[in-house]
Design a protein that fits this description.
This protein has a two-stranded antiparallel sheet with strand order 1-2. The two termini are 19 Å apart. Helices cover 64% and strands 8% of the residues. β1 and β2 form a beta hairpin. It contains 3 helices and 2 strands. By secondary structure, the chain is mainly alpha-helical. The relative contact order is 0.07. It has 2 domains: 44 residues, no CATH class; 31 residues, no CATH class.
Length: 76
C-alpha cells in the first residue's frame, strides 16, 4: 500500500507540475496569475504547515466511512 500510494502521488504531482508549467506560458493573463499564486503559496509555506492543512483542514471536510462495523473519519 505504501509503494502504491508513493507511486500514485509522485505521478499525480508530475502531471500537476507539467500542466502548471505549460499553463505558465498561456496567453491568458488570469491563467498565468492563478498558476503563479499556486506556486507561490506552496513554495512559501513550510511542508509541516501544508501537512497540517491537508490532514486537519481537508480531513474534517471528508465524509466518515464505515468499515467492518466501525465508523472511521479521515481526521482520526
Amino acid at each position: 500500500m505504501t509503494l502504491f500510494l508513493s507511486v500514485t502521488t509522485i505521478m499525480l504531482s508530475l502531471v500537476i507540475g507539467a500542466a502548471g508549467a505549460l499553463m505558465q506560458g498561456s496567453p491568458f493573463k488570469i491563467v498565468r496569475l492563478v498558476i503563479n499564486v499556486f506556486v507561490l503559496v506552496f513554495r512559501n509555506t513550510p511542508p509541516l504547515v501544508q501537512i497540517f492543512f491537508f490532514y486537519f483542514g481537508l480531513g474534517t471536510m471528508l465524509p466518515a466511512v464505515e468499515t467492518a462495523g466501525m465508523r472511521v473519519s479521515a481526521a482520526e
